[in-house]
Amino acid sequence: MMREELFIQSFQKAPDSMLILEKKSGAVVAINRSLAKTFGTPEGLDLSLALASVIRTGSDQAAARGVLEQKIRNAVMEERESFIQSIADTTGTASEYLIRPRLMNLSGREYYLLSLSKVAGTAETELLIEEALAEKEVLLREVHHRVKNNLQVISSLINLQAQFVDDPLVIGYLTDSQNRVRALGYVYEHLYRTKELGLIDFSEYTTRITQSLLREYSETAKNVSVEYDVQNAKLNPDTSVPLGLLLNELVSNALRHAFPDEREGTIKISMHPDGKGRFILVVADDGVGIPSSVDIGKTRSLGLLLVSSLVSQLDGAVDLKRTNGTTFTILFKPLQYRERS
Asked: pLDDT per residue over 203-248, tens digit each?
């Protein structure tokens, strides 16, 4: 109770305009002196006011109330420090305000504490936005770097485990798992290094995955070459992760099975837009081909089951041709970011 009393005293005397919003009802339950003076509202600690009657953001107050409440909830959920909002003062003059929302608990109930600071002008607004973006970019790069390092640790542990196994079949399973982890790691390595935060150059990513697989299978597939025809597509992680794993499965499957007895051959990888907002990925080899008895939708092979699952994750379609080797054609549409629950 003592802590809550001290908080209330600090809240009332704070130089910044502040209010407390009940999370469940959306009602303003407390307004400090500074905000009451700036916006001509009642001051108090036991209020029940509509947010739109306290903060006027537009002529349509009902709509404005809903928009502002959603902005507050989104900022807290996304852990954003602040956001900019145009607010009218007692004279009706609209000014830019920096709103800092915080979720807090008082007496077992959840509230939003809002702090409002007037922004002097456009230049200062832009500076604040740039500083906030720069801070988030640094934090996001650090997250990507840590994820990449953690995946490298997992890959190393799998490699270490393989050294204590004699069964070639088990070693093969461990190698496949290690390659999948590496493919994931390359996504976060690209995200960490790229200048375009959140986008991956899939042409470069394709080369990185296939070159790693060629090194992995250098003894059994040393006479196999890879040809690329991949357009410089910039894809987000939601698309790049399943697409990278899909590419890993198709190329590693070709390197393992298409060229027995050190047979010479070529794997061709191409990816282009189809002009309708979708992409066509083709992975073809001139090897011995997949037997006609194999149905990729019903096979017990984990690799081919993953192919079907990953294509489904991309909301795409796959076509398999067995003429002059094996050709997988995948039609997919880049996924948009979807909020996680």
From this structure: 888 998 899 889 888 888 889 999 999 987 888 888 888 898 899 8
Q: What is the DSSP letter of 25?
A: T
Could you give the C-alpha distances from 302 to 92, 177, 184, 221, 307, in angstroms and in order? 66, 11, 17, 21, 9
For domain 2-119, the CATH architecture is 2-Layer Sandwich (3.30)
DSSP state of 260: G
H or E stretch including 103?
strand 94-106
Integer Cα distance of 137 and 197 in angstroms: 8
Q: How far apart are CA 124 and CA 131, in angstroms?
A: 10
Is pTM beyond 0.70? Reply is no
The CB density around residue 136, as the number of other CB atoms within 10 Å, is 15
Q: In angstroms, rounded to a whole number, what is the distance separating the alpha carbons of residues 255 and 280? A: 22
Cβ within 8 Å of residue 72, ≥6 positions away: 21, 99, 101, 112, 114
Q: Are 214 and 221 in contact (CB under 8 A)?
A: yes
- Give per-residue pLDDT as tens, 105-155: 887 789 999 999 887 655 666 666 777 777 777 777 777 678 778 878 888
Q: Which CATH number fits domain 221-341: 3.40.630.30, 3.30.565.10, 2.160.10.10, 3.30.70.1450?
A: 3.30.565.10
Give CA separation, 246 vs 13, 87, 220, 283, in Å. 59, 49, 22, 10
